[in-house]
């Protein structure tokens, strides 16, 4: 605030006789503390934990603590010694009997298919000493150094595996990142699709919203208020209700198809549901008010005198728009586009309800890993890359687009 | 040119509103499927809603969580906005941090909160839902109240202080009455955010904590009964009531305050 920001008097002038700024600054900070604490504890801390979850790898050390300690000491060359073999066999057996082997099996089988069978077969057996001879007899994979190196990596407590898998990379047997075989990776496609849908929706919202906001801002007061009500009502109505409305409208025997048939525009009901068209239509419908509202505000604040001045200096309409009006509205465009993009990229319900299998976005995958396969490492990793992607795109837009004042 | 642009705007506004209106006739249709035109009128789907245990539980949860969220987010957001308005240092940074919940994509916030809350026993609990929704509603309270503080001259506070009013008196007798409409609007915002919210509920709420949006989503996945349309209409009525209250408060804010602030030119300072 201009009234309170004169903390230091200019040199040469007497100091402010009433030193009111400092105590108010402290009081002001104090008043913001509870809110900051709430955001810190319930959002920032969880976001940090989320990052940690993406690289956390606690299962092996928790389920097979002695084996983990021995594996960490092992240099990774050839096969480990008898003690490690014995510890693994013994602890796997106990873990199975105590019914706490599930987490470890899920973790190792996620890294290498087939580990489930190997672990269960080994845990059920009671190998006689020397265990380093008995285990390969149960399953030849125990004589493969790659199996042991995989266990050793899993004993370290942190892993890049989830982060790598989330961008279609994999780990080789000796732990270096490698591209997954062509056609197997799904996540890069998923990210590309999510960002593409978000960018298209943002673009459509700006292209449609800009002229609408311009028309509303130019309306006389009473009409302007009515028009704003038309924007505000959908804005306040739940996103889910709006998506549900489209869900009903676009059904095979729903109102839209009925209307098109009645008008003779189509001969048979069109497939509207579960298409990319439905997703884009509903997303634009849901997000359009987020562009129109800030833009109307920005456009109403523009000093019309500037446009008249430009006209009196001989600028034709297109020049007045391109060099006076448009630059003045860009902060509003930027604010609206940013909100729409951020909301669109994390959209869940609209693609889930209206889209087909090929229209699902990142959110659905994240929710699937949490609610379905309980793989928190993957859920976190995908969200970390998503957040990074959003940050990069917004930063790029911020520095490339002339929206800074 | 102007006519074309206004016609386009009218069409777009119709596009925004019309799909919402279609739900209304479907909710009072006597047919058990959602087709238009409806064969006859019937209140049975509303009856379904108000006698269905799951819908009632969801409605109760939504109202409870919304109210508690408002009670948490409004005081905290108001204090923070006042703090920023009276000159907390690094105001831009403070405001940006408080607005973070708006900028983080909701699915990321929801996942992070779920993973954190499950460790402290807040997942699958109404308390966890209230905490999460409070964070989400907070920025709206802060921004609304902060805009409210720009409607009058903060020198009033110094004048009161110079006349010997204590800080508590200034807060109670001057600041809060002047800010009351803005605080009310912020509170409505916080309630609306919570009432609308689905993604966090999707992660944090178990079946016992289903809110109305969560229950609606669940019912789109099952047999599609017009009870869903009835629920959509009821939820929208609550949203419209909130919007009405919001509009009323804004009008009061414009005419109820000091003439110098209301009649002066709009300030150029952006709240962001």
Helix and strand pattern of chain A: HEHHHHHHHEHEEHHHHHHHHHH
Please tell me the overall pLDDT of chain A: 85
Low-confidence stretches of chain A: 1-10, 12-20
CATH superfamily of the largest domain in chain A: MetI-like
Tell me about the largest β-sheet of chain A: 2 strands, antiparallel
Question: What's the count of strands of chain A?
Answer: 4
The largest sheet of chain B, given as strand count, sense and whether it forms a barrel, is: none
**Total number of helices of chain B:** 12
Residue-averaged pLDDT of chain B, rounded? 84
> Using only CA atoms, what is the Rg of chain A?
30 Å
Query: Which percent band covers the strand fraction of chain B?
Result: under 5%
CATH class annotation of chain B: Mainly Alpha
Distance between the termini of chain A: 18 Å
Secondary-structure class of chain A: mainly alpha
CATH topology group of chain B: MetI-like fold
CATH topological fold name of the largest domain in chain A: MetI-like fold
- From the spread of the alpha carbons, the general shape of chain B counts as globular
CATH architecture classification name of chain B: Orthogonal Bundle
Describe the model:
The complex is a heterodimer of chains A (405) and B (272). Chain A has 19 helices and 4 strands. Chain A is mainly α and 405 residues long. Chain A has helices at residues 21-55, 59-63, 65-73, 82-97, 102-111, 115-124, 131-138, 145-154, 161-165, 187-217, 221-236, 239-249, 255-262, 276-301, 304-312, 317-345, 349-354, 362-372, 376-400, and strands at 56-57, 157-158, 169-171, 177-179. Chain A is elongated. The two termini of chain A are 18 Å apart. In chain A, strand 3 and strand 4 (177-179) form a beta hairpin. In chain A, 69% of the residues lie in helices and 2% in strands. Chain A folds into 2 domains: 58-159, no CATH class; 187-400, Orthogonal Bundle (MetI-like fold), CATH 1.10.3720. With 272 residues, chain B is mostly helical. Chain B has helices at residues 2-27, 44-51, 53-85, 91-103, 106-119, 126-149, 155-162, 167-196, 199-204, 212-220, 227-255, 259-263. Chain B is globular, with a radius of gyration of 22 Å. Chain B starts with a helix and ends in a 9-residue tail after the last helix. Classes of the chains: A mainly alpha (405), B mainly alpha (272). Chains A and B meet through helix 1, helix 10, helix 11, helix 12 and helix 14 of A and helix 1, helix 3, helix 4, helix 5 and helix 6 of B.
